[in-house]
Every structure is written in C-alpha cells, then in structure tokens.
Amino acid sequence: MQTFRVLAILFFVGLFILAYAIWGRAGRDTSAAPVEPPPLVPVAQLTELKPVKNIELQYHQPDLPPGPGHDVFAAECVVCHSPRYVVDQPAFPRKEWTAVVHKMVEGYGANLTPDQEKETVNYLVYWHGKEDAPPASAENAR
Ligand code: HEC
Questions:
Q1: 0.70 exceeded by the pTM?
Q2: How far apart are CA 62 and CA 124, in angstroms?
Q3: Would you state the pLDDT for residue 30?
C-alpha cells in the first residue's frame, strides 16, 4: 500500500512536471509575427516627393562683336578670364588699352606677339574704347 502511494505521488508529480514543461514552452514562445519592412520607394519617386530646388544663376557672357583684331582677342584674351573683364572697364582711350594689354603680356603671361598686342588694342578701342584725344596742337596752345 505504501509503495502504491509513493508511485501515485510520483505519477502525479511527473504529470505535473510534464504539464508544466509543455505549458511553459507554449508560454515562453515569444516569437512575434515578423515585422514588415517599410515599403521600398524607387529613387525616382524620392525626388518626386522631395523636389530638388532649382536655382538659376544669371550668366552673362558678352558677345564679341566682329571687328578688327577680333580673332586675336577671342583666341588670347579669354583664356584666363571672361571678356567681362573688358566690358566691366570704362571705355578706355587707346593709350590705356595699350597699357592694359601690355600688362596682360608682361605681368600675367598672356601669349601675344607685339603685332598681336597692337591688333588687340585696335579691337578693344573699336569694341569698348575710344581713340585718344588729339594732342593739343601748338596753334590751340597759343
Ligand atoms: C595669362 C592669363 C591672362 C591672359 C591671357 C589675359 N589676362 Fe587679363 N587678367 C589676368 C589677370 C590675372 C587679371 C587680374 C585679375 C584681378 O586682379 O582680379 C586680369 C585682368 C584684366 C582686366 C581688368 C583690368 C586690369 O587692368 O586688371 C582686363 C581689362 C583684362 N585683363 C584684359 C585682358 C585682355 C584684353 C587680354 C588679351 C590681351 C587678357 N586680359 C589676357 C590674366 C590674363
């Protein structure tokens, strides 16, 4: 009788352990439903959603009117800077343009022969300059 009781207790204890193991496993099963990644948006649509700002800068490149010495100017004088350097200046007399052109050659290394320098000065006087005032004549001075 004693043995039967012990076996019965062991049986119920075993049953309890088994039930707890099965229930415990089910309870611990925390594997949640897989998280859905956010839907992929094509790159093209990203830019549609957030349009890139467009800034248009004004760009003014002066036209080089045809004239004597145009070709030398167009070939040699816009290598380092735009022709705006010329139109931004006052309409210099020939003497001043001669000095500027010579400064470009001597000072900054523009690649012009003396003849080309003269041609360029002609062009600058024609395009954006004026002839030197005639020297005060001896008659006027008197
Ligand atoms: C090797 C480069 C170079 C070449 C080629 C060149 N320049 Fe310049 N130019 C300069 C530099 C550098 C300056 C000065 C820029 C500054 O001070 O901001 C300048 C300035 C000027 C200016 C502004 C006024 C001044 O006196 O500084 C004028 C006008 C000018 N150049 C005209 C010409 C002409 C005309 C030619 C063709 C004969 C020419 N440049 C060729 C480099 C050059």
A1: no
A2: 13
A3: 61
Measured from the CB, is residue 109 less than 6 Å from ligand 1? yes
Domain boundaries, the chain: 70-130
Q: Is the pLDDT of residue 69 over 90?
A: yes
Cβ of 64 less than 6 Å from ligand 1: no
CA 23/CA 27 separation, integer angstroms: 6
Phi, psi of 14 (to 5 degrees): -65, -45
Q: How far is the CA of 41 from the centre of ligand 1 (A)?
A: 52
Q: Which CATH number fits domain 70-130: 1.10.760.10, 1.10.443.10, 3.40.50.1260, 3.50.50.60?
A: 1.10.760.10
Give the number of the atom of ligand 1 that is nearest the alpha carbon of residue 116: 38
CB of 86 shorter than 6 A to ligand 1: yes
3-state secondary structure at position 128? helix
Alpha carbon distance 69, 120 (integer Å): 5
